[in-house]
Amino acid sequence: MTRTFVLHGGDFLQKSIIMLCAGFFLAAPFVTHAGTISGTNKYARFLDSSHGLINFGTVEGNVIVGNSALTGYAWGEYVGWINLSPATGGVVNNGEGVLSGYAWGEHTGWINFNPTNGGVTIDASGDFHGYVWSEAKGWIVFNCQTDNTCGTLSHKVQTDWVPVSTLPQCGNTLDDDSDGKTDYPADAGCTGTSDTDETGPFGGGV
Fold first, then answer.
1. Relative to the CA of 86, which of 11, 103, 163, 198 has its CA 20 to 30 Å away?
2. HSE-up of 39 (CA within 13 Å, CB side)?
3. pLDDT in tens, 3-50
4. Full-model pTM
5. Cα(73)–Cα(81) distance, rounded to whole angstroms?
């Protein structure tokens, strides 16, 4: 016995549109630019070793590195939780990995991420470099390369976030061709999030 299934034109069109949209969103997700801390490279340290290490990669602390700010909590083995985004402060990212602003800890006081003779940056590999200043505990160093102690005090903080300028134009959250559309798939000049040029054959992605 042969069964014939008939799909009416309207139903076919509706189902086709639904399937096409579903496939589009599965194939072309929007990219968000935020990073987490490495499960291995996650430690900063106080220059005064009596204050111990600071772990930026705890599950509970949930540190997130975004284009404009850092959020979450770091854990100091002797100083407890350090809030990276307190209500009256916060660690700021300029989008290129240059950090500033203030974190707060009950036992560290305010921690200045851009002090005189200090400051912290994140490079294209996601490595943190430099010093911050705790008003109660002094200098904190984020990478042994900063003070040439690798080998004896090897450590660093690393993230999978990278500076915006290192990302391809079609996946960097910027309207690079100034056409009012940003990234793939919104900008028709982009063929994917790895496309390095938002401008297209139709001019400016229009």
1. 163
2. 1
3. 443 434 444 344 443 434 444 333 333 344 799 999 999 999 999 999
4. 0.73
5. 6
